[in-house]
């Protein structure tokens, strides 16, 4: 049974930090690229950051560059998102996604974790 479970969300003041985790099971984690998405109320889901299968390549949305860091530990089947200098605009539900394109395009999604940035 494939599972992606996000954790680490919560309420934080502007300027604060949070570290999200995404624990994977039921599939070969190291064979999948991983990404974080977020969805704010009334907005479409947007890509936040991506990381390659072995972690040697990353990509970030312009809105989070220099503040967020994506990483993964294939030995622990876990992906992370370190979020620093948080802003109210970062408030959203954060989702993790596992994906690959070969031999068959496959996507798995987690259920999400709420991040609220407010004073």
Task: Give a short summary of the structure.
The chain is mainly β. It has strands spanning 3-7, 10-12, 18-25, 33-39, 46-51, 58-60, 68-73, 78-83, 92-100, 106-109, 113-117. Strands 2, 4, 5, 6, 9, 10 and 11 form a 7-stranded mixed β-sheet that branches.
Q: Can you offer a commentary on this structure?
A:
By secondary structure, this protein is mostly beta strands. The chain is built from no helices and 11 strands. It has strands at residues 3-7, 10-12, 18-25, 33-39, 46-51, 58-60, 68-73, 78-83, 92-100, 106-109, 113-117. The strands form 2 sheets. Strands 2, 4, 5, 6, 9, 10 and 11 form a 7-stranded mixed β-sheet that branches. A 4-stranded antiparallel β-sheet has the order 1-3-8-7, with no helix packed on it. The radius of gyration is 14 Å and the shape is globular. The model has no long low-confidence stretch (mean pLDDT 97).
Helix content: under 10%
List low-confidence stretches. Answer: none
Put simply, the count of helices is 0
Order of helices and strands: EEEEEEEEEEE
Residue-averaged pLDDT, rounded?
97
Structural class label: mainly beta
**Overall 3D shape:** globular
- Measured by DSSP, the beta-strand proportion falls in over 45%
Give the beta-strand count. 11
Radius of gyration: 14 Å
User: Main beta sheet: strand number and arrangement?
Assistant: 7 strands, mixed
Termini gap:
40 Å
Helices and strands in order:
Elements (H helix, E strand, L loop, with lengths): L2 E5 L2 E3 L5 E8 L7 E7 L6 E6 L6 E3 L7 E6 L4 E6 L8 E9 L5 E4 L3 E5 L2
């Amino acid at each position: 049974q494939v599972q992606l479970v996000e954790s680490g969300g919560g309420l934080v003041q502007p300027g604060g930090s949070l570290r999200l985790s995404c624990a994977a099971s039921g599939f070969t984690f190291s064979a999948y690229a991983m990404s974080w998405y977020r969805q704010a109320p009334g907005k479409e889901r947007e890509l936040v950051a991506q990381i390659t299968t072995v972690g040697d390549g990353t990509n970030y949305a312009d809105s989070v560059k220099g503040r967020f860091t994506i990483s993964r530990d294939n030995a622990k089947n876990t992906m992370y998102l370190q979020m620093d200098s948080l802003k109210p605009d970062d408030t959203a539900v954060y989702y993790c996604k596992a994906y690959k394109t070969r031999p068959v395009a496959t996507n798995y999604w987690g259920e999400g974790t709420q991040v609220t940035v407010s004073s």
